[in-house]
Nucleoside diphosphate kinase (Aquatica leii), 159 residues
Amino acid sequence: RERTFIMIKPDGVHRALVGKIIKRFENKGLKLVALKFIWGKEDMFKKHYADLSNRKFFPHLVKYMCRGPVVPMVWEGLHAVEISRVLLGQTCSEECEPGTIRGDFSIQGNRNHPMGRNVIHGSDSVESAKREIDLWFTKDEVVDWKSAMHTWIYEEDDD
Ligand code: GTP
Ligand code: MG
């Protein structure tokens, strides 16, 4: 089953949105398989956002991510990557729909701002998810388990 890497950014932590954000993933039926609370180091964010390293806003983005603690997580489920991107909403706060995490909790997008405050990160493809999970978690920090709710979320196990 598919896994995605999600990280609550320093603004999400400071604004005390951690519980609310986690609840949205739980409500959707995704399953938590890894979570930690850390103050990330600059070199980790440089690796994490490596594909944006030649963009003008890159130093600002790295600085923003280092400004406070973050909550890296791994969520598992059917189409976990795509479904999580929908839960997050668009990158720019001006465009993201109400009902999404960014749509409900962020106001300053990044179109005219060097870093923005968009509360949360989510992997943009299955390949990036694998790379990001390996960057932030060791193998034994990702837990294999079967949720008691599984058969009420997926029909495939029906007899
Ligand atoms: P993440 O989930 O954080 O990866 O956001 P995203 O996938 O929606 O966007 P992307 O990976 O393209 O960019 C990563 C982060 O860089 C965004 O969340 C923004 O904080 C910032 N960013 C992206 N594009 C721009 C831009 O055009 N200008 C500025 N200033 N910042 C940007
Ligand atoms: Mg991205």
In short: Residues 18-28 form the longest helix (11 residues). The mean pLDDT is 94. The radius of gyration is 16 Å.
